[in-house]
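thought: fold this chain, then report.
action: predict
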Amino acid sequence: MPPRRAVPPPGQRAQQGPPGSPPQGFRQPGNRPVPPPGREPDLITHHAHNGTDDFGRDPYDDGYDDAAFNEFADDVEPQDELDEKGKKVLTPAQRKKRRWKIIRRVSYAFVGLFFVVPAIAFVITYFLVDVPTPDSIKSLQNQPITYFDANGQQLGRELPPGGDRQLLKPGEVPEVVKHAVYSAEDATFETNSGFDVTGILRAVWNQVSGGQGGGSTISQQYIKQATQNDAPTLTRKWTELAKSFKMNNQQSKEEIITSYLNIVYFGRGANGIQAAAKAYFNKDAKDLNASEASLLAGLIQGPGRSENQAYAQKRWAYVMDQMVANKWLRADERATFQYPTPIAKNANKEQNSGKLTYQVQQRIKDELAAKGYDENKLFSSGAKIYTTIDPAAQDAAEKAAADGMKGQTDENLLNALVAVDPKTGGVLAYYGGPELVKDANGKDQIGQDRANQARNPGSSVKAFDLTAFLKMGKGLGETFDGSNNRVLGGRTVRNAGDSASCGKDCTVAKAMEISANTVFYDMVLNVTKPSRVAEAAKEAGVKVAPDGKSVLYTDDNNISLGGGGTAVTPEDMAAAYSSFANGGTYHEQHFVAKLTNNQDEVEFDQNNIKTNPAFDDDASKSQQIAGNVTEALVPVINHSNLKCPSGHECAGKTGTQQYTAKDSDPKSYGDRNAQTWMVGYTPSVSAAVWVGGDGNKPLHDPKNKPIFGATIAGPTWQNFMNLYLKGKPAEKFDKVQAIGKDVNDVTTTQSKPPDTPTTTTPPTSTESSPSTEPSDTDTSTPTRTRTRPGPPITSIDPGQGNTFGGGGGVAQPPGSGPG
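observation:
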């Protein structure tokens, strides 16, 4: 190979000929240059001959590289390096340039997608939407609520009461009310533009992180209240923002807050601040003080919990503190205010409910509110409520309750009756006492609902003692010492009446029939333990807090005899016994079978809700347990001098709780009772009857003798069952196999009850001393007295009880049968 040409230093052009000679590549006349021997002629592709500049660039180059020919050139620069994927390897500068190019393009897309497009869409939405007026909302919310009975016949109709829709004008809402609402809902209302971006972001964060709190301004809340649309959709939120922004452009802040306070719901059926002021304090909105305004403002977030005092007080305190924080109330003024006490619920409310009783109506509303359907939604949708109330059962309940109280001379006597359908859990009849009673001044007032108040159930709780015992595999043939005056767990427990004669080897079946206290106290104390009894009661249908009002106290053994801290409502007792009647299948008690709007669109259908076995995951095992309980309760009916409806098998249990005597009481009060029960069932209906006093009252019959479960409650129950089941097909209980030791295989020597039942006098030992609430267990603690007449349950001292009045005895003549 001939040697290559010398390459000139950088920056210096190669000399191709003698000085002054023309550049090579141009033909000279008559003188064609001859290439040196052994060397190829220069190609025109060499930049020294193709007119490129000093930097090797052709100003006429079109940018396309003849890469295919480069391999044939011996003096071209090396080609770009490629990575393993065949892509060009970029220099750091090239990579940086490419990154910024990508960032710019993504930024343009982001701005377009999240700012330009939404802005255009928002403007379009802004001109398409209309802001609803309070007058238009008023007409929409005036749709009646209609109630139907179990037969589909109209039971009642309710309209928003007069005055509840009164609209205030701008300037009529006092500043203290506005400041309270701002503090509760939107502290920046006076300055924001209708929606709060930071609030929205905060709401998003709360939802993502599991926190609480929304991001809606008062303007947005007004739109939501006005449209009654709170669906968690982007479409709803988007139009809500547009409407609230438009509202702030079209109306003043004074107009907006007035409109909002005219339609917002405060609970108690009150829509608007004027109606709320009347419903809670019986005054006009202009007369509310800071404390009252704070309570109402605090209820806006939870109007369905208006009667929950703990919630209301918490919200009141929060609003008051926020008013101080926002300088709308001085701290020294805040310190002088106390929590305001509202007037009684519905004290000013008139109802248009036809045959529907007020008590049933309130229980229906309580049930629907717990499901998220408060009065505001019911009125807005023109709700149609299909109840489980059977008019025949309701009539029978009211008649039986009235008949049972005829001739009674004790003014302290009260009663309640609830009936439940075992096959559905639907409440067939509900009577909680008279709807109207006289107050101290002789004026009519709404009576209390006794069917929804918890009382000591006495021996009617023994059905749950037995359930817990059977769940452990024990049977009705097991025996216990049923002797009277037994010392158990440091307490002297005694029987009452003929149950004192159960004997040393008393079977569980016999103990249930005669209601021997010592047997069941021993059973729970030493075998099942109180917690299993409470579990069985809840499985059957007894509802404890927070879902119900009943209390199942397990820190002592008083639950075994239904005393001490244990208290159950008549509604819960009827529902729980219905689980036995239905062969161990649990159906939650309820008043509403179906809810629709005025267009008959179904909100929910209780009939489609799945049910479960009550006492065991195995349905057949649960049925066996319930059947054994029924077998034990069947003889109680006859022993209590009661009869089943003609053609129907029935079972049940009485209950009696003794009055706790005071030092100043006559000696005869020592045998008086304060609460009595009869709970029983057939396969098609379970009913609970309670007859007692408002708390610890010494009750008596017209002959001034103590009353027992079989004195008034028992005959009332029997009368109801006869009235309701008259003409209905005969029915019998399913037979099941015995659990554990079969009572038919046990041979015991039972003491024969005396021909004339007597009441055993309670022991006079210092061990037996009554408690603040009558119960069936004894305690060795000093006697306590009670100066106020009634419950609430919170006043019960769960640690004490007595051993007498356990609901199993028979009063001495001329008294009634077993209690």
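thought: worth noting. The longest helix spans residues 92-128.
final: tokens above.
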